[in-house]
Prior knowledge:
Blueprint: E1 5-9, E2 12-19, E3 25-31, H1 50-56, E4 63-70, H2 77-96, E5 100-107, H3 119-129, E6 135-140, E7 146-149, E8 152-159, H4 160-170, H5 175-181, H6 187-194, H7 228-244, H8 257-267, H9 291-306, H10 310-313, H11 335-355, E9 360-366, E10 371-376, H12 381-398, H13 404-408, H14 419-430, E11 441-446, E12 449-454
Parallel strand pairs: 3-4, 3-5, 5-6, 6-8
Antiparallel strand pairs: 1-2, 2-4, 7-8, 9-10, 10-12, 11-12
Amino acid sequence: MIDLTDIIVDGQTVGYTWNKETGNRVLVVVDDSIDVLVQATPNNGHQYGIKPIGLSFPNSNESRGLGFFTLPKPNDKRQTAIIAEAIRKWLTPFLAEGCRCQLLVDFYYGEGFDNTQDSGTYFVKHWQSLSIQSEIAYISLGGLDSVSQDNSDPLKSFRKSEIEEYYTQYGNLPPKLKKWLGIEEHPLDSLWNDSKEWFSRKPDFGSINFSPLIHDFPRDWKYSDLGVKDKINTSYRRTVQDALGIARTPDNWWKSVESIEKIHESLKRLCGQCFCGQTDNPGNSSYHISTGAAYLLVLMAYYRVHGNVSAVTSSILNWENYPLIKSPVFPLQSRRIARSSCKALYDVLFELFSSTDSDVESTFFEDEGRILKIQFSHDIGTELSKVMTEKMHGFIHDRGSDSSESQNQVLDPPAAGHVRSALVNLMGHLAISQVGFMAPGVIYLKGNTLIIASSESL
């Protein structure tokens, strides 16, 4: 949990706050259950959603500050004024910097509901009367998507239970809430949201909605008279490219069933119902990042930096000749750790492509797909060796401490533009396994070449 500072008024703690030096977004949560921040788990549904916000919002590069303030009882004018003034004083420096400020206010919706007696709407009316530049939405245990505000437009409302459940499953905030907060969604979160139903359906060759994104790749497509080849080169290809966030991949990759099948199997190790980061179903989620899936991450990261994938695809004419492309790099992990591991590898690739002065000369597979190599135009390993030696020296000495802060450093999301913190984060994730420790693959940089390889041959 982040370090929180108590806000005390007249000897009473009315809130907890956090801030950092950079960022442009500030969030205030006003709720009568903020004590959950100092508890291990929520005691009841009213406390849902609060701690996930405290654990997730600070991870965004855009986040500048986060405050939790006690919601006064309904119609308590004095306490409402005290809390509102405490929030205003805390927000003032951020507003002066031009930060975007938002409020999430608890709203009761349930049996015997009467919004004239609701603490949230009463507080919001008072806050709006102060004319402080801010955006407002509600969080509630109930099921409303918006709350009417007299004669003004309704305000958005987010369900506490959905926030809690989504965080429990995926270790992040729900996409709708992140969108309202203006937090840029990680490209992998977008992929997982788009692919959540992939590889879970059986084929229906007679259906007009036939989708190739099923569990077992139908090799008899090439014998079909249903125009499946056209489907592959249009619907299937477009769906995959859109989900990966890539405008176009080489045409030759999609000209043979054998090549497409390798892409298909690599996708199953990155997303959809077979990927261990997508579902906890032990009978259907046995795959994690393979060398083929790692290459898909290379494509995603490179495209995000350069807007094309030409430099990382020119040496891979198609996927036909790589039978070992399913070889695992990461071990089997829980859903949350598996997702975090994928992001750790993606972040390293993104930082290498965007933070170094070296261009990618070529990317290719060796040993029938068991080894993936990315060659840069000049040596980047020597400089990174220096910064990693410095980073790991302090890190290794910190491991002598049993403090939770020291133990958690290895899984902290990296700050933007910091290759070494991204690398340390990746190292920690490679060590975690559901069946033991350490990974069946290796990821290392030597001179001008990044190597991602599996020690297992399928």
